[in-house]
Amino acid sequence: MQSRFITAGNLKDDVEVVLAYELRETEFRLDLYVIPRKALNKEAFEKLNTDWVNGQEFEFPEGTELIYPDINADSILPDNIKSDKTGEIRHKQNEWAVQLLTNKLWESYLIELENLKKRSVNLMSYDKSLFEDAKSYWERVLEHKKERNITQERLDKIKEDVNAIFEQLKSFRKTESAEFEKSSNTVRDQIVERLNQIKGRADEKANFKTLHDDIKALQHEFRGQRFLKSDENGVRKAYDDAFHYISEQRNKYFTDKYESRITGLKDVISKMEKGLDRDKKDLEYFSKKSESPRIQSLELQLLKVRLRQIKETIASKEDKLKDIQKTLDSILKQAHKATKSDKPAKEADPKTEESPAAINETEVQLEQEQEQNTETPASSPEPKGSGEE
Q1: Which stretch of DSSP H or E encloses residue 34?
Q2: Which residue of 219, 221, 358, 364 pairs with 344 in a disulfide if CB–CB is 3.0 to 4.6 A?
């Protein structure tokens, strides 16, 4: 792009002048030499129009006036000068204005790049904010490339500097990734080992509520720990397996505990029902016999006493049978509550980033057994179970 341009004009008194414009990019300035036409002979005008326009030196004649038009004004043609070439002047003004503003823009971009390079030089470890800033900077540079506001030469220089920053960040990230992987593996193994220890305590003498709380405490202890994705999945599965194992052991314990009582009560109920059937048959027999017209007075009195005894026996056995059935229903209910396993309560999924996210808790609620008619505190997160009969 040419930085010099000449055209003809007239002062208000119709004095012919030559307008010699020069764009000074480094000073962010536009110079206008107003030269009386009569001060230029043919040879001088040719030198001005060729040599000077193409960048060579030129000695302006006496009477030349130097002014500094505002390139951002409506026109760089002074008010006291007229010209038939206003279109050309306007075109040059727009072209130069774009050039100056582009230079100014890239001056600010180079300053920003220098600041990024200074931050890179002072790095002691991976800096995510520097990565994001450098990435944003490069994306904005490419946008200007699409808009043809930057030359390929400038783009190549900027690309070289930005790549150097990314390479340094990559080096730090690689080192930290290796350390992170080692830390993730170590913590994963610690959690799995402690879960195995908790599972090892799940025998017939265990307090299953305590074991459940121990797992939750372990989850809380490592709640903010970051893992590799594979380790995160492994730890999550280890928690689920531990909850499931304790639930199974608990179910087995309560199944064995209630089975003998349930079997015994069912046997008692069966025997009592058979006895009731016999009593009811006796009641039916003696009732018919008491209605016989051939029965004697003493026999009738004896039958009435026997009928009363049978009725009282039946009523007593039915009451006892109801009580036993009620006890059996209560024990069956306890056994059902004690052996059922609640599904894990889902939490919000962890935020995923380039680095592995923190492991979330898997909330698994187990029913709390009530031993020796001990009630669960209202503040407990566990649902109440039924007390033993």
Answers
A1: strand 29-36
A2: 364
> What does the pLDDT look like over 88-130, one tens digit per residue?
999 999 988 888 888 888 888 889 999 999 988 887 877 888 8
* pLDDT tens digit sequence for 281-339: 988 988 888 888 887 888 888 888 888 999 999 999 999 999 989 988 888 887 777 65
Bridge partners of 364, per DSSP, are 344
Residues of the chain with pLDDT under 70: 1, 204, 256, 338-389
d(CA 371, CA 307): 46
Q: How many other CB atoms sit within 10 Å of the CB of residue 121?
A: 9
With the CA atoms of 139, 145, 151 and 155 taken in that order, what torsion angle do they form, in degrees rounded to the nearest 10? Answer: 20
Contact 83, 89 (CB under 8 A): yes
Assign residue 372 a region (left: φ > 0; alpha: ψ between -120 and 50; beta: otherwise): left
Using the 8-state DSSP alphabet, how is residue 360 labeled? P
Cα separation, 117 vs 164, whole angstroms: 9
CA dihedral 163, 164, 168, 173 (to 10 degrees): 0
d(CA 103, CA 110): 10
What does the alpha-carbon distance between residue 178 and residue 240 come to, in Å, rounded to a whole number?
Answer: 28
Give the C-alpha separation, 309 to 283, whole Å.
10
Q: Which amino acid is at 59?
A: E
Tokens 């304790």 belong to residue: 246
Local structure of 254: helix, strand or coil = helix
Q: How far apart are CA 51 and CA 58, in angstroms?
A: 8
What is the DSSP code (8-state) at residue 363? E
Q: Is 82 helix (H, G, I), strand (E, B) or coil?
A: strand
The torsion angle over the Cα atoms of residues 272, 274, 275 and 280, rounded to 10 degrees, is: 120
The first and second tokens of residue 228, run together, are: 């590799």
Residue 139 and residue 92 in contact, taking contact as beta carbons nearer than 8 Å: no
